[in-house]
Automatic annotation (TrEMBL):
PANTHER family reported for this sequence: FATTY ACID REPRESSION MUTANT PROTEIN 2-RELATED
The keyword Signal is assigned to this record: no
InterPro entries for the chain: Frm2/Hbn1 (IPR033877), Nitroreductase (IPR029479), Nitroreductase-like (IPR000415)
Name under which the protein is recorded: Nitroreductase domain-containing protein
The species this protein was found in: Penicillium cataractarum
Protein family: Belongs to the nitroreductase family.
BP GO terms, sorted: cellular response to oxidative stress
A Pfam short name: Nitroreductase
Keyword Electron transport in annotation: no
Sample GO molecular function, one term: oxidoreductase activity
Nitroreductase domain location: 20-194
Cellular location(s): Cytoplasm; Nucleus
Length: 217
């Protein structure tokens, strides 16, 4: 199943897909920005406002951390991992040779976007549509994932590199306390971004024939 050259009606479609194709995971990042903080903030704000959610429940919550505030979240992660080492849950050699350098690399970036889901806000819709009550939490997580992807795409389109991390629940309590966030906000992911200092790894694909089918063409 090979690709076929097509002509899009709207040139923006081609631009969007090129941005999608260009998105990569960058681990080597430095604390510099190719754009103003206001532009970064606008990207995140637009994702909060315009990413769709099931029944328009608007369950995603996002915190943007820049510069020194960004460093704090990775200090929290380092401290939490050091606690696991001290308790004997993580080997000291693994922490020093693998985990700590990785966390230091995240800390060396320019910013972090924290993505949360407010599951408690779903109580009214779960009561109204009780037959679907068990579906709303997964729907909320799917909406949050769309926000993560949109912000990632937009930041890379503006010249950043980024990588997505998941250090919950290890850092959750301290994150909530440090930035005085509502207890109902449940942390899901952390998007680290900065100016790339190295190239991303090779992008590989499973055969499209095993992952895509079309009928009725």
């Amino acid at each position: 199943m090979g690709s076929t050259a097509v002509e899009f009606k709207n040139p923006a479609t081609s631009t969007l897909l090129e941005v999608v194709k260009a998105r990569r995971t960058y681990y080597g990042l430095k604390a510099e920005s190719p754009i103003s903080d206001d532009v970064i903030e606008r990207i995140v704000q637009d994702s909060v406002l315009h990413v769709p959610s099931s029944f328009n429940t608007q369950t995603s919550r996002i915190v943007l951390l820049l510069k020194e505030e960004h460093k704090k979240v990775w200090d929290i992660a380092i401290s939490a991992m050091e606690g696991l080492v001290a308790a004997g849950h993580v080997p000291k050699e693994m922490f020093e040779n693998h985990t700590k350098p990785k966390l230091d690399a995240f800390r060396a970036a320019y910013g972090t976007v924290l993505f949360f889901v407010d599951y408690e806000s779903l109580a009214p819709i779960k009561e109204k549509f009780a037959i679907y009550a068990d579906k709303f939490d997964p729907f909320a997580l799917e909406s949050n994932a769309m926000s993560q992807y949109l912000v990632w795409l937009a930041l890379e389109a503006e010249g950043f590199g980024a990588n997505l991390q998941h250090y919950s629940p290890l850092i959750d309590e301290q994150v909530t306390k440090t930035w005085n966030l509502p207890a109902s906000w449940k942390l899901d992911a952390q998007l680290v971004f900065g100016v790339p200092t190295s190239e991303p790894g090779e992008k590989t694909f499973e055969p499209l024939e095993n992952r895509f089918k079309v009928f009725g063409k």
